[in-house]
């Protein structure tokens, strides 16, 4: 028997389950997503599940179940089942699906904290941090910056300067697998029943860190496979594990480019730490791009805002506008198709 409260099951989820027509069936949490199969942890054990046709029909792919989701399933036997329903999602980490301009991809659902992992050897990049932080704001997931490989050489002053504008609310951890105190500090930061997703580029040490936090090798890492001479191992799936003594950790494959889908201007201003200039621009709806009397542009000219930060602001602004415009365009197209269907229906009833 698994105690699902260790997997994040709550009273709120129980109340939501009671509203489902499948409320009498067992529930569980998706621990791994394969192409068409899902591994589900339930009180009764571990089940390998598939989706019913109903679960696919009329849904946007971003609404299909994903790692971290809570589902209701019909067991077929003691090891297999069919997913009948997904409980409403909260705190979902999305990204812009690579190769698209308007599709959202789910990385993980029901996430409390996101560890944005960068390694101090050569991966540290404040611009990349800003993207993740902006995205997390949309779903009220707490961003946490985790800088790994602190045993290797790096320039601490440079790192701290680059992090200065990233508001004081965001915790920053320096870790090294060779320094157990740094691992203990991070472990203490994860509460029982809390879900943490690890995200970042390939090779920064996400899987290694999860193994260290769990005190056992739950995931393969680059190091293990180099020792067997088989080349580098990179994680290829999103997988959820339990950390003894509390916390649910989700490992993810390395991400090359993290495209954002959050179009909230206030969030972007906050992430860039522009909020101190709020209300100081001449125009209320100032976008801080070329407007006269813009407090941000003036601060930039006075050297109070780092040009790198401002450039990053412009780039993200452009990206999210692009995303929103494509979504609106798609919606409009969807509407005009619906209108055409209505027209056809009306005409055909005329000739009945
Ligand atoms: N020196 C040092 N090396 C580390 C540390 N953490 C991880 N590494 C090494 O970094 C390499 C990559 O680690 P992984 O854990 O596989 O990286 P990952 O982020 O999971 O990579 P993907 O699965 O490809 O996304 C391995 O060789 C680790 O041993 C650290 O704190 N210090
Ligand atoms: Mg990995
Ligand atoms: Zn302005």
TrEMBL record:
Cofactor note: Binds 1 zinc ion per subunit.
Gene behind this protein: rsgA
Cellular component GO terms held in the UniProt record: cytoplasm
Listed EC numbers: 3.6.1.-
EngC GTPase domain location: 109-256
Name this protein carries in UniProt: Small ribosomal subunit biogenesis GTPase RsgA
Assigned protein family: Belongs to the TRAFAC class YlqF/YawG GTPase family. RsgA subfamily.
Keyword line: Cytoplasm, GTP-binding, Hydrolase, Metal-binding, Nucleotide-binding, Ribosome biogenesis, RNA-binding, rRNA-binding, Zinc
CDD domains: YjeQ_EngC
Lineage: Bacteria, Pseudomonadati, Bacteroidota, Bacteroidia, Marinilabiliales
């Amino acid at each position: 028997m698994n105690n699902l409260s260790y997997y994040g099951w709550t009273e709120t989820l129980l109340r939501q389950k009671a509203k489902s027509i499948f409320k009498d069936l067992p529930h569980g949490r998706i621990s791994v997503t394969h192409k068409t199969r899902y591994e589900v942890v339930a009180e009764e054990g571990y089940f390998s599940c598939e989706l019913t046709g109903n679960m696919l029909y009329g849904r946007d792919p971003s609404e299909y179940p994903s790692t971290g989701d809570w589902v209701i399933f019909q067991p077929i036997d003691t090891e297999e089942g069919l997913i009948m329903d997904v409980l409403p999602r909260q705190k979902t980490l999305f990204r812009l699906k690579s190769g698209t301009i308007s599709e959202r991809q789910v990385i993980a659902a029901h996430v409390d904290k996101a560890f944005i992992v960068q390694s101090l050897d050569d991966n540290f990049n404040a611009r990349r941090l800003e993207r993740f932080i902006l995205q997390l704001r949309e779903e009220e997931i707490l961003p946490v910056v985790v800088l790994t490989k602190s045993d290797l050489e790096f320039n601490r002053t440079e790192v701290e300067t680059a992090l200065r504008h990233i508001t004081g609310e965001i915790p920053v951890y320096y870790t090294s697998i060779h320094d157990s105190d740094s691992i203990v500090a991070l472990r203490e930061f994860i509460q029982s029943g809390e879900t943490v997703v690890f995200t970042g580029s390939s090779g920064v040490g996400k899987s290694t860190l999860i193994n260290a936090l769990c005190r056992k090798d739950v995931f393969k890492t680059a190091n293990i496979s180099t020792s067997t001479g088989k080349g580098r191992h990179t994680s290829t799936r999103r997988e959820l594990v339990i950390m003894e003594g509390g916390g649910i950790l989700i490992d993810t494959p390395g991400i090359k480019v993290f495209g954002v889908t959050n179009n909230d201007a206030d969030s972007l201003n906050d992430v860039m730490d522009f909020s101190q200039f709020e209300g100081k621009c001449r125009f209320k709806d100032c976008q801080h791009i070329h407007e006269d009397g813009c407090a941000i542009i003036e601060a930039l000219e006075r050297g109070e805002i780092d040009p790198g930060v401002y450039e990053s602001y412009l780039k993200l602004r452009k990206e999210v506008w692009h995303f929103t415009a494509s979504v609106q365009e798609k919606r409009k197209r969807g509407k005009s198709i619906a209108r055409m269907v209505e027209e056809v229906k009306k005409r055909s009833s005329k000739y009945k």
